[in-house]
Amino acid sequence: MYRLHEKYEAVIGLEIHIQLLTNSKAYSNDLNEYGDEPNSNISAITLAHPGVLPKVNEKQLQFAVLLGLACECDLREENQYARKNYFYADMPKGYQITQDETPICTNGFVRLKDADGKEKKVSLTRIHMEEDSGKSIHDQDPFNTLIDLNRAGTPLLEMVTEPDIRSSEEAYNFVIEVRKLVRYLEICDGNMEEGSMRCDANISVRERGAAKYGTKVEVKNMNSMRNVQRAIEYEIDRQIEAVENGEEIFHETRSFDAATGSTAGMRSKEDANDYRYFPEPDLLPIYLTQEKIDGVKEIMPPLPHELYNKYTNELKLSDYDAQILTDIKDVALYYEKMIALSSNYKVCANWLMGEVKGYLNEKGLHISEFPISVERLVGLIQLIEEGKVSNSIAGQKVFPALLENGNKTAAQIADEQGLVQEDDSDALMGYIKAAIEAYPEKAADYKGGKKGLLGLFMGEVMKRSGGKADPKKTNALLREELEK
Ligand code: ADP
Ligand code: MG
């Protein structure tokens, strides 16, 4: 297959459905709540009983603008709604309210790392507002399909990319970036496993250098980011093999089976629905004013790529550090607070990515549950900087004490527990002399040229001082004493 991957190129465009974290539904004031008792959040409006009228949810519009601005899209002023008609057992209206010809966002892009780790912009065709359908449940009753309409009317944004993606890794990275973005914007929880972000992949292959795209196949039902990648990998190989065998690729929709890692045909485009789109007669167009856009700009949080650029360019952190710090918004915001109090950027980053993350991982906690305030943690870092406690004492003794005691500062803890480093020369000399007396032969060997023995004496002094000897000073005094 490798040889064939040299010969062929994959072309991929993704469609991502993003469920919005609004309190109410897209066109009614029914609760938008995942996990409630089935069929409990469904008024006559969600069920589209005759005579009811939908209403637009302002929050959906605001979230669309947030995502559009974050992706540097063009925003549309006059937004019309359209009906997309099709029958589905779990769609009570018999149509979906969507935006057909007037998506609120067009153009724009999502930044990601390509296979070589270089920044790449994947262009967006559009982002539009629409609503989700209900849910058919096939695995709870052996004889019947159960229907839960709570999800019907959940506000969605659908993001459609241009066919700019060239590999399964890039597609995976794209989904990661979109998830990160919607979580930063707090418009969607981004949990693919729960269906709050869903991805369909359009895939074709062509010989490298060919001017035209091949026929695309749409793959559905990937319920995790890894499965998006697996489905695309399988589909690329399948299509290359077919083309090599002189077979034709059909324009069809295929379904991914996570158990086998393969895709199977669902329906061909010939029997595709004719959705008979027409303008939604019950909703007037809504106008997106500059005032509204400015209002959204005001609540725009810092974006991951902005923070990443700041950390690498201004703070001179490595790509790796910047990546880890910006992965999760609340971690980045914690870091932002740290560096407002301390200019030891790298030391702050190390503590956050080391001890703090280690603790959170071990306890399975989110950083919002981390018990040490930024001020107290930075206080500990300052103690290290001032040479009052060593890095290892800070990690082994002060950090655990900060975790246990919610009130005391690092300085108080170090003081009370007698952890403040001894840089008083008299005290140090006491330990040094005792260490040399304990190993007279080694001291002679050192003098005779075995300089490697310094470590032994350093260790001995550390032990005698209970780890509190200032290493730099000890080192200097010890050399002096041994050379005598
Ligand atoms: P359709 O008319 O079937 O909806 P669109 O042109 O609207 O097709 O594109 C839908 C999605 O398929 C977009 O994400 C687009 O980037 C992607 N796409 C279009 N053509 C191709 C192709 N030849 N190969 C892979 N993806 C494609
Ligand atoms: Mg289309």
Sum this structure up briefly:
35% of the residues are buried.
Overview of this structure, please?
With 484 residues, the protein is α+β, with helices and mostly antiparallel strands. It folds into 2 domains: 2-292, no CATH class; 425-482, Arc Repressor Mutant, subunit A. It is 41% helix and 19% strand. The protein is built from 16 helices and 17 strands. The chain has helices at 2-7, 58-70, 168-185, 225-244, 290-298, 304-314, 319-327, 329-341, 345-363, 374-385, 391-404, 410-416, 425-438, 440-447, 454-464, 471-483, and strands at 8-19, 74-75, 78-79, 82-85, 95-98, 105-106, 109-113, 119-131, 135-137, 146-148, 155-161, 197-207, 217-222, 252-257, 262-268, 278-279, 286-287. Strands 1, 2, 6, 7, 8, 11, 12, 13, 14 and 15 form a 10-stranded mixed beta sheet that branches. It has a 3-stranded antiparallel beta sheet with strand order 5-4-16, with no helix packed on it. The protein has a two-stranded antiparallel sheet with strand order 3-17. β9 (135-137) and β10 form a beta hairpin. α6 runs antiparallel to α7 (319-327). The termini are far apart. The relative contact order is 0.09. Adenosine-5'-diphosphate binds next to β1, β11 and β12. Adenosine-5'-diphosphate binds at residues 11-15, 160-163, 202-204, 213-214, 216.
